[in-house]
Amino acid sequence: MATVHKIGIADLAVAKSPDILTTLGLGSCIGIALYDPVKKVGGLVHILLPDSTQIKNNANKAKFADTGIDLLLSELQKQGIGKTRLVAKIAGGAKMFEMSGGSAIGNVGERNVQAVKAKLKSLGIRIKAEDCGLNYGRTVELHCDTGDYYIKAVGKPVKKI
Asked: Under DSSP, is residue 7 helix (H, G, I), strand (E, B) or coil?
């Protein structure tokens, strides 16, 4: 019987088959799933902002793309998971609010997507699938038995990537 692990905002967890990792309320935030298809172990981090160096109160490493992905990778490595087989799936990064004048605040979702992609590339982790952008929130589930990443959004069919 699979256990469902719920991950809050600016939080992360690691689990193995048959467990499921889920996080709710991805608006401009991004859910980054890292998965080893051989060992069937996955991790999920719910990041809020792109860059920890731009914020004074940055003690919560899971809150940021640059430090949250490193922290998730470290937790996976504690479980004996190497970087070489990991694949990433990402979802979120929506533009939830229309801001006048092209405000950077209104564009945090796009900046999150760019930061996540840059960080994964720098680590040599391939993004296998993504569901990012647009203007609606998402809930995601990583199924550790298959590596399937389910995206749920109000008024839309469930998407599997």
From this structure: strand
